[in-house]
């Protein structure tokens, strides 16, 4: 769901709950579109700030705890425009903070912190002579609805359809194969998180990898109406256009990956902090550092 917002020239943040690890928006401003990543709906430490188009729309920076020196800086002349919307994404989690332009996979500014700050809220504001109009792709109120880049107008078109007991909704996205049978991409609430996994329809259940085990789940959500693709990936090098599909019990964003094992192409979860994809297979949770990741 997109939220439209106008911010005045006040440098006062408007906060939204967001634990997804991803934030996407469009903004129309002459300069100084500011984004805060905070542990509360307020300016409290620890907190990150990303200033896009600061210093007269010439530079973008990342700052921690509202203090100088800035921890990262990039030259970005003309990155904002007060007559047209410009799209951006912010990715955060496991000490990493990155910002990039809509439609581009590589960030224009990024930084890795030795401290792992658990971001709970994202704030936006404008200042230094600029007001702003924003279109914000709002994160879900629960971890079952993380956002993803892509789709109409560059915003999320990822669709998850509830199903159960082996049901395959129309337009389900097939991501693998098990003994000649198509395997579909699912996610399910399990172990305090929302875990990506696989659906083998003939088994009448879906499976998610968690706690070292292949866990059968009778109720799940299936990825539908999706036109993404797969990209070769290694370890924790998550591409910016990877599709967030859930989160761990600790709030870490999880992605969809797949790997060939035992002659089958099996879908599972990518957990960046572990540097691998985990697949549910043969009663076990198996990890692989080299895999394909779902992107959009």
UniProtKB/TrEMBL annotation:
Stretches assigned to the Farnesoic acid O-methyl transferase domain: 10-138
Cross-referenced Pfam families: DM9, Methyltransf_FA
Taxonomic superkingdom: Eukaryota
Protein name: Farnesoic acid O-methyl transferase domain-containing protein
């Amino acid at each position: 769901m997109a939220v439209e917002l106008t911010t005045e020239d006040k440098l006062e943040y408007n906060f939204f709950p967001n634990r997804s690890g991803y934030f996407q928006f469009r903004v129309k401003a002459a300069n100084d579109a500011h984004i805060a990543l905070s542990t509360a709906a307020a300016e409290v430490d620890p907190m990150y700030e990303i200033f896009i188009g600061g210093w007269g729309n010439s530079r973008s920076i990342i700052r921690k705890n509202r203090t100088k020196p800035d921890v990262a800086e990039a030259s970005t002349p003309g990155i904002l425009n007060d007559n047209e919307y410009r799209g951006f994404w912010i990715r955060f989690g496991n000490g990493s903070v990155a910002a990039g332009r809509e439609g581009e996979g590589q960030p224009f500014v990024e930084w890795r912190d030795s401290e792992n700050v658990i971001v709970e809220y994202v704030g936006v504001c404008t200042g230094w002579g600029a007001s702003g109009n924003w279109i914000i792709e709002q994160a879900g109120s629960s971890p079952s609805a993380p956002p993803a880049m892509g789709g109409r107008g560059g915003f999320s078109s990822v669709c998850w359809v509830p199903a159960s007991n082996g049901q395959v909704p129309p337009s389900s996205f097939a991501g693998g194969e098990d003994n000649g049978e198509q395997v579909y991409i699912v996610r399910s609430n399990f172990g305090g998180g929302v875990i990506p996994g696989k659906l083998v329809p003939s088994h009448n259940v879906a499976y998610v990898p968690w706690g070292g085990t292949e866990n059968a789940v009778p109720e799940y959500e299936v990825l539908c109406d999706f036109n993404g693709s797969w990209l070769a990936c290694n370890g924790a090098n998550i591409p910016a256009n990877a599709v967030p599909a859930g989160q761990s019990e600790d709030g870490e964003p999880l992605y969809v990956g797949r790997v060939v094992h035992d002659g089958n192409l099996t879908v599972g979860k990518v957990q960046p902090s572990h540097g691998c994809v985990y697949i549910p297979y043969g009663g076990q949770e198996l990890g692989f550092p080299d895999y394909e990741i779902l992107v959009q």
